[in-house]
Specification:
Two copies of one chain form a homodimer. By secondary structure, the first copy, chain A, is mainly alpha-helical. Helix content of chain A is about 75%, strand content about 0%. Chain A contains ten helices and no strands. Chains A and B meet through helix 1, helix 7, helix 8, helix 9 and helix 10 of A and helix 1, helix 7, helix 8, helix 9 and helix 10 of B.
Chain lengths: ~200, ~200
């Protein structure tokens, strides 16, 4: 367990992987998935293409690693939303995303590209939409029973619309800096009719 | 005016241009602006690259022609909205877009890409956001005075949010076929509180 001869290289591999993921996020955010190349990602790190491909043998393997960052970044969204409410739970992520501009941009571009049935990330996008919608619907139902929100709308349709609105709001923020927290508050307020208006 | 020797080539040029624009829409919709190439667009039409570049000397010139289709497709949105209401005016375009899938996809991808300040279409995107938001705000104010909607929210913020929500709703539709007309109705109903609910 404490053999330094083994720990060294492992730590180094993890560090190298996370450098590559960061570079890939920036390149996909600037050029899209189709437009970004492994060569460019390697070049930005002064790495050889062979070294990069030792860590990520294909472009889609690297894309998957990049996409997984998002889920890893919000590990306790569901627990926090049950405790404090769905509206504050969502607004906390919108706020946190202010610090993750290029990751959000990469997400926005890849999502739009991946609507195409032949895109390598199409299955990932469909899975993500289904999972997120189900989670939101469940949290909306939970908050309605708890008396935190007073909408009488269908939780699934509301959850889907909140997710879609959020996507569009983030694209606008990336383009011209329009406050995404204020826009999400307005959307959540209108759709969910909180018993106490979101601050 | 009726000299066939002159009319022939002009008509032919217009036809060729519109074929190139249609091919570019499909290629940008599949690969994004950065990922799509003039070579691919020409190849899909069995055209030489030189012939294509005779009509569109640069990639960005072709992108601009592609983007202009959108505005040309809805020439009387403002007039129609004043006459019949903003909500039916918007819903009519959402319905019409069901028939323009690849154009909408191209728009979604290029908008996400063009959030980047160095993208060739960044200035276009900012101009479009500002213009559309101003138009929506004006139509919302008009409908409120006319008693068609009962929201007391700020027209500019509402207009911006409707535009953003619409973008996200269309991306979802492109991905998994979720009904964009029903989603837009729900959004407009919650944000604008029509005196008569949108059918």
């Amino acid at each position: 367990m404490t053999d330094p001869g083994r720990r060294g290289p492992y730590a180094k591999t993890a560090e190298r992987r996370s450098e590559i993921i960061a570079s890939a996020t920036a390149v996909f955010a600037a050029y899209g998935y189709h437009g970004g190349s492994l060569r460019q990602i390697a070049k930005d790190l002064d790495l050889g293409l062979t070294t990069l491909m030792h860590h990520f043998p294909t472009k889609v393997a690297l894309l998957e690693a990049v996409l997984e960052q998002e889920d890893a970044a919000n590990p306790d969204f569901t627990g926090q939303s049950r405790r404090d409410g769905f509206v504050p739970g969502i607004l906390a992520i919108v706020e946190r995303n202010l610090e993750r501009r290029e990751l959000v941009r990469m997400f926005s571009i890849v999502s739009a590209e991946a609507t195409h049935p032949e895109h390598e990330a199409h299955a990932w996008l469909l899975r993500r939409y289904a999972e997120v919608t189900a989670t939101y619907a469940e949290l909306i139902s939970f908050d309605r029973v708890a008396g935190r929100i007073t909408t009488d709308g269908d939780p699934e349709r509301l959850g889907q619309l909140i997710m879609s609105g959020w996507e569009g709001i983030q694209i606008r923020w990336l383009a011209d800096g329009s406050d995404p927290v204020a826009a999400m508050r307005l959307l959540l307020d209108a759709l969910l009719v909180p018993a106490v208006r979101p601050e």
